[in-house]
Amino acid sequence: MSDTSTPAQSPSPFRRFVKFAFFGIVALILLALLVASVENGRGRRAWERFRAEWEAKGERFDIAAFIPNPVAPEENFATTPLLAPLLDYDRRIPGKWRDPAGWKRANALGGALNSDRDRKVPKTGNWQTATFTELEPWRDYFAGNSNFPFASPPQNAARDILTALRKFDAELSELNAAAARPHSIFPIHYDEHFNTLLPHLSTLKGISQLARLRALARLGADDSAGALQDVRLGLRLAESVANEPITISQLVRIASLQIVMQPIWEGLARHAWSEEQLAGLQSALANIRVLEAYGPTIRGERAMDNLLLDELRTGRQINLSDVLGNGDGQMLSSASRFVPDGWFYQNQLTLNRLFQERFLPVVDATKHRVYPQLTREIDEVPELKSRGLYNVFARLLVPALSKTAAKFANGQTAVDLVMVACALERHRLPHGQYPEQLDLLVPRFIAKVPTDVITGELLKYRREQDGTFVLYSAGWNETDDGGEVHVRKGGEAPDPNQGDWVWRYPK
Q1: 234 CB-near residues (< 8 Å, 6+ apart)
Q2: How many C-beta neighbours within 10 Å does residue 463 have?
Q3: Per-residue burial over 332-359, b = 16 or more CB atoms within 10 Å of its CB, e = otherwise
Q4: CA atoms of 336 and 504, how far apart (whole Å)
Q5: Residues 134, 246: one domain?
Q6: Whether residues 94 and 237 fall in one domain
């Protein structure tokens, strides 16, 4: 009997390929899900262990811990009518600014001494290179400028400059009155983190330059009391952002302090200040503690970075162009939608370790010290030199902070130098000469001579044969160069990375 059944046909090669490809894809998806699950759990646990360990030691990682508490408007320098419009904005309304006229008024004051196409703003002297300000170029700058009143007939340069600056009497008088308020909290939109606007910084710096010029002109007109008022305003403007845990705010603060040092230096070099004025100036300077702001600033920057990574991980932040630039920002914004959460946690761990173990130890405010060698070591750590999956954000966000400590050190040194210089001048007034040693200033003229933030030793000091003195810090190169300032090649400005940081007067 014959078999009439149809023989079984084997699947075609194409069907076998589709079958194996399907199972292969399913296996890869399951493997990817397994890897992602393991990566998510491993990354989250590692980050949470690190965070819990340091929070138990008192550290905080959320931006809310560093935002200054609000104060009553009548106690707040930042809410004086001139300054209040600067941060009063809402991105949802046309033009953003709720008081555009007030915003323009404040900015016009801050930009009063900006160069334009027709007129270049003259230079001021530089106390770091012991050079005075020439007032004649400033008088010529205002002469014939229809934006400013001018004396007719012209008098001396100082008085002509003061005539021109009368245009701002009302605004500067308002700021002088507001300077007596005990607090200064600008209403920064911290909820916008990296996208927040900070227009107050350039305005405050510009007003500081205006106050400096008026102080210099008043010194030239033998009005030391008026000059001291402008110096005090300059100090208040600088310190008005002292509590902002943002690097750029602190850099503007330090730059503004450097600006106001010039009239103090010129007044001391000319012996223009009285004992009473010097004692009051010392008292004001003693409350300026630049190094104490370093820790909150670094922690504030770390908290902002944590907020950014949290928002990327949860999908709340999808546009990094404003933070990292169009190239890196767009690339990471696209990629962040498809990577496991654990990758963000691991990047967060790397970033926070760098802040905790590398950046924070660079400055010890309690010891009044800054350690340049530690900043140089930061540039050599593997997390910043090599490329890897877990240091992407560290390489993008951290390098900009590596030079910050040098700015803080230089700013604190400037305050320390001027405090000692005031004490030296107070000694000279009754004795007719500067002391042979700094310890002779204690306790009558200064409670304690500051130590060099770089070396931890007393600031270097020597009395010169011509009756002047040289007072200096070893500077960022940690080398005693004998009180010599290193000037940038082809320029007149000092190089803060080379030479000493010096306070001296022309012979």
Answers
A1: 208, 211, 212, 215, 256, 259, 260, 263
A2: 15
A3: bbeebeebbbbbbbbbbbbbbebbbebb
A4: 55
A5: yes
A6: yes
**pLDDT, tens digit, for every residue of 409-456?**
999 999 999 999 999 999 999 999 999 999 999 999 999 999 999 999
**193-249 pLDDT, tens per residue?**
888 999 999 999 999 999 999 999 999 999 999 999 999 999 999 999 999 999 999
pLDDT at residue 458 above 70? yes
**Are 214 and 313 in the same domain?**
no
**Both tokens of residue 315?**
């999908």
* Structural domain count of the chain: 3
Alpha-carbon distance values, 218 to 49, 131, 148, 232, 315 (Å): 60, 18, 18, 14, 57
Which tokens is 288 given? 């300026």
Interatomic CA distance for residues 179 and 174, integer angstroms = 9
Which sign does the torsion angle of CA 81, 83, 89, 95 carry?
positive
Per-residue pLDDT, averaged over 371-375, amounts to 95
Are 268 and 281 part of one and the same domain?
no
Of 222, 239, 272, the residue at which a domain comes to its end is 272
pLDDT, residue 34, reads: 45
For residue 76, give the 3-state DSSP assignment. strand
Asked if the structure places residue 409 within a domain, the reply is no
Determine, yes or no, domain membership for 459.
Answer: yes
Domain residue limits at 506: 434-507
Position 90 in a domain: yes
d(CA 476, CA 296): 22
Phi-psi region of 344 (alpha: psi -120 to 50; beta: other; left: phi over 0): alpha
Give the model's pLDDT for residue 198: 97
Q: pLDDT digit string (tens) for 77-87?
A: 999 999 999 99
Asked whether residue 91 falls in the same domain as residue 65, the answer is: no
Q: Answer yes or no: do 241 and 280 share one domain.
A: no
User: Is 324 in contact with 317 (CB distance < 8 Å)?
Assistant: no
pLDDT at res. 8: 56
288: three-class secondary structure by DSSP: coil
Write the secondary structure of 393-424 as one string of H (helix), E (strand) and C (coil).
HHHHHCHHHCCHHHHHHHHHHHHHHHHHHHHH
If pLDDT is split at 50, 70 and 90, which confidence band does 488 have?
confident
Predicted pLDDT of residue 326: 46
User: Is 28 contained in some domain?
Assistant: no
- Give the model confidence (pLDDT) of 269-298 as tens digits: 999 999 999 999 999 999 999 999 999 999
What is the pLDDT averaged over residues 48-55? Answer: 96
Helix (H) or strand (E) holding 494: strand 494-499
